[in-house]
Amino acid sequence: MYHFHVADDHPLFRNAILGVIQRHYPDAVVSQSTNLDTTIQELENNDDIDLLLLDLHMPGSTDLFGLIMVREKFPSTPVAIISAVEESGTISRAMGHGACGYIPKSCSPQDIQAAIKAILNGDRWIREDFRTSLTPVGSEEKDLAAKIATLTPQQYRVLSYMREGWLNKQIGYEMGVTEATIKAHITAIFRKLGITNRTQAVIMMKDF
User: Fold this and answer.
1) In this structure, what CATH number is given to the domain that contains residue 184?
2) pTM for the complete prediction?
3) Which of 39, 95, 206, 207 could be cross-linked to 7 through a Cys-Cys bond (beta carbons 3.0 to 4.6 Å apart)?
4) CA dist., res. 153 & res. 175, Å (int)
5) Contact predicate 105/84, CB 8 Å
């Protein structure tokens, strides 16, 4: 019996995925989450998940952070990205950072089923029209991903705000914590990334 976990904060597409699973795998166990924190908790509590279907952008995860975090913490769990982003660079990077499939949200139920079947059989899956445009991820980006994977979700959120140019006071207000807490997060971020100031952080993250 397969165990699927669907991590997506958009009810319509989550229901579309569930419909495909229920139609083709009626005996499967399906769990759900709508943000990165509860997704991590689910993976920690269940070591029998056969496939994680992970939204690229949901609360707690912007860009590739969710994928990188999951691959670091749970390397044996197959992860397929589900996303509205249909850009070859993003797909290349997701696959390069360990996704075993990339399912655009424009896919038909038939494509979703084909992707799930391929991945359960141990194959990698991307839609045919993207297969000739994939490019490898460089070693420098992989090294950066390994450092980013050591951040907590809260620290990554602070880093994302820093990349957008937010001040400590603004970040603290947005996250509902004190400015001192934000400074503590930033100190930890600098240590983990091996940098010493905000400018270096912005430069490091500009293409990530």
Assistant:
1) 1.10.10.10
2) 0.82
3) 39
4) 12
5) yes
